[in-house]
Amino acid sequence: MTTSAVSTFQAPKGTYDLLPPDSAVFLAVREAIAAPLRNAGYGYVETPGFENVELFSRGVGESTDIVSKEMYAFETKGGDKLALRPEGTASVLRAALEANLHKLGNLPVKLWYSGSYYRYERPQKGRYRHFSQVGAEAIGAEDPVLDAELIVLADQAYRSLGLRNFRILLNSLGDKECRPVYREALQGFLRGLDLDEETRRRIEINPLRVLDDKRDAVQKQLVGAPMLRDYLCDACKAYHEEVRELLGAQGVAFEDDPKLVRGLDYYTRTTFEFVHDGLGSQSAVGGGGRYDGLSEMIGGPSLPSVGWALGVDRTVLALEAEGVTAAVPATTAVFGVPLGDEARRVLFGTVTELRKAGVAADLAYGGKGLKAAMKAANRSGARFALVAGERDLAEGVVQLKDLDSGEQAPVRLEEIVTTVKERLA
Ligand code: ATP
Ligand code: MG
């Protein structure tokens, strides 16, 4: 076996592998986002990586980019039409409805999830075909406190990671009373603009999405477009005002963004996005909002709900952009260096004891000599090496070496765990 041979295969376009040491940062980000949710009554939910394609075309919306362009849809040998999940909300709601969670007890049903999502996009930095999200959904209650709670929890998650240069954009998309009136007014305005064929089509099927167009030439023409803000019905206005006040009272800063629409059809009322200024054009690190109509769209009862999804990949990039080192749990603290077969057996026992006692410990394998084993110890980042040769074992000791100072002293075998724990404390 040679170690220089490289596999014929590479990760597919738009994907990448998570490998140590960077993978530890991903885990830390997932954990940091999950912690505030667990602490706020959200239970963990896991759904399949693929679903009936209809769930997404109905739930996310035929007219969205996600469904019309980005979905990995396929037919199985058995003739089922499935799609790799492009997002989490539709699946989580489907699962909650299927299990009748909304009938079991108190509403809202609060759930959080973490997993892989798939979109056939043009790959670039921060935009991948396989990416990771942690999300939260509060299903079955209409209460501005819930909208505010979710925004506060995301804010807390980002702050706990040490992120500072993110902003919260907030808007209301109205409801089934006021949005149709606005939609028509907007269509009237957009039809008078100089736009390409595809955008003209979009005016007819999903005009709000035109506001979200990233191109300057389009944005310039949108000056003076009617704003949803001016069309909100009294109930939507009051609801939105309440969310804004609740956030303000918790000291969470946000910016009103009357043009924020987001890509999914199912949003109503509160909609928000977390953007980071160090990420170039892939600036959204997370987003969410209220989706009061989704349950009915997928055949369920009326269940007003709100949720968000935060992108793990972009959050990691945001940490890098800010130069923040995520608090990654310590890796190896103690590294065993056995010299000879007997030492290997003994140190394997010692390392097992240390691990049981909660001390991260590793070992040199493969009968390495002293030099190579010490190199491995240093590379592991361990604080201490436990070096054992025949003479040490005959005396019932191993050498405990401080890898920072280089100091070394014998420690009796039966005292290693206590000694190491003391020295590490
Ligand atoms: P964008 O406008 O950048 O395409 P989006 O509105 O499609 O984002 P959402 O569907 O709201 O994104 O997903 C929530 C979060 O998931 C995003 O804010 C982002 O952090 C992450 N995300 C979405 N698509 C991708 C992707 N292709 N690669 C990496 N992260 C992504
Ligand atoms: Mg997108």
TrEMBL record:
Top-level taxon in the UniProt lineage: Bacteria
Assembly with partners or alone: Homodimer.
Encoding gene (name): hisS
Domain Aminoacyl-transfer RNA synthetases class-II family profile: 23-329
Keyword Ligase found: yes
Protein name: Histidine--tRNA ligase
GO biological process terms on file: histidyl-tRNA aminoacylation
SUPFAM superfamilies assigned: Class II aaRS ABD-related, Class II aaRS and biotin synthetases
Lineage of the species this protein comes from: Bacteria, Bacillati, Actinomycetota, Actinomycetes, Kitasatosporales
Gene3D superfamilies hit by this protein: Anticodon-binding domain, Bira Bifunctional Protein, Domain 2
NADP listed as a keyword: no
Residues that coordinate or bind L-histidine: 87-89, 119, 133, 137, 262, 266-267
Family: Belongs to the class-II aminoacyl-tRNA synthetase family.
An annotated GO cellular component: cytoplasm
Recorded catalytic activity of this chain's protein: tRNA(His) + L-histidine + ATP = L-histidyl-tRNA(His) + AMP + diphosphate + H(+)
Pfam families listed in its UniProt record: HGTP_anticodon (PF03129), tRNA-synt_His (PF13393)
